[in-house]
Design a protein that fits this description.
mainly alpha, single chain, binds iron/sulfur cluster
């Protein structure tokens, strides 16, 4: 792991989801992401998280309070 990657991911430990069940944020196909999105709503690093997911074209999971279809929409309005 490069220093740049570590810096790029430094915000993660401040995330409201840090230490929670990852399955909430990466639900099975058809599973609910409501609980994850509620956690993101009060997250102090929501913007950093969303920017990271957009930059890396993350196609799975909830990042910055948005699912992949929602992130795709804001990438290409
Ligand atoms: S915005 Fe959501 S997924 Fe991102 S760090 Fe915060 S709680 Fe976790």
């Amino acid at each position: 792991v490069s220093t740049q990657t570590i810096q790029e991911l430094a915000w993660q430990q401040q995330g409201a989801c840090w230490g929670t069940d990852p399955q909430l944020f990466f639900p099975e196909r058809g599973g609910s992401s409501i609980e994850a999105k509620q956690t993101c709503r009060g997250c102090p690093v929501r913007l950093e998280c969303l920017e990271y997911a957009l930059r890396h074209h993350e196609k799975f999971g909830v990042w910055g309070g948005l699912s992949w279809p929602e992130r795709r929409r804001i990438r290409r309005p």
